[in-house]
Amino acid sequence: MPDSAPLLTVTHLKKSYYTPDGDPLPIIDVPEFHVSSGDQIAVHGRSGSGKTTFLHLIAGILQADSGQIFLDGQEITALSEPERDVVRARSTGYIFQAFNLLDGFTALENVELAMMFGQGIDRQRARYLLETVGLADRLHYRPSQLSAGQQQRVAVARALANQPQLVLADEPTGNLDVHHAQEALNLIRRVCAEQGAALLLVSHDPAMLAQFDHVIPFETINRVLA
After folding, report:
1. Predicted pLDDT of residue 74
2. Residue span of the structural domain in which 221 resides
3. pTM confidence score
4. The domain spanning residue 169 has which CATH number?
5. How many domains are contained in the chain?
6. How far apart are CA 14 and CA 173, in angstroms?
7. Gap between the Cα atoms of 214 and 219, Å rounded
8. Which of 19, 42, 56, 212 has its CA 20 to 30 A from that of 190?
């Protein structure tokens, strides 16, 4: 794809699941979707509408039935699962609602483990990221020793560990109270901007969505819902 192309381009993307009877159940039918470098986009839609599946397809966690996903000119949909894993580690950061931290490891180790699948462990950068998200005094705490808000901060640092071009955030404030949810959103947006990463965030919270200039209803992206 040409250099002037968006960072992320999705075309004719389809994904179905199957009922217990073996019948296909379409969940994703996206004709076209784009994200440019530096964008901060929020997507909203009803629960069960396929938003998480859409993010998983973009991240290469799931394989599409058909269609194309290009990230920085590379066609993700043409890659094998191990190849998609490598691209995800190097180019995409993912912030999960449930944090998905490894409780047997410290905050610092959780960030460093993410680096193992990218360019390799850089302890100085891992420390810098945790300091950036306000956890300089919690480097050696395990997730069970941290509050929900602090765990989310570790998750943000981990998502940015490999200097991704694109950060995907799936209901990243859903497990936080109002105060910590606002802190987390501010942090995600600020750190993405500082690190030069585009942000594609899914949320159902009107207060969160109201803070984005670019808000898209998922039913305008996904024809299954039309």
Report:
1. 95
2. 8-225
3. 0.91
4. 3.40.50.300
5. 1
6. 28
7. 15
8. 56
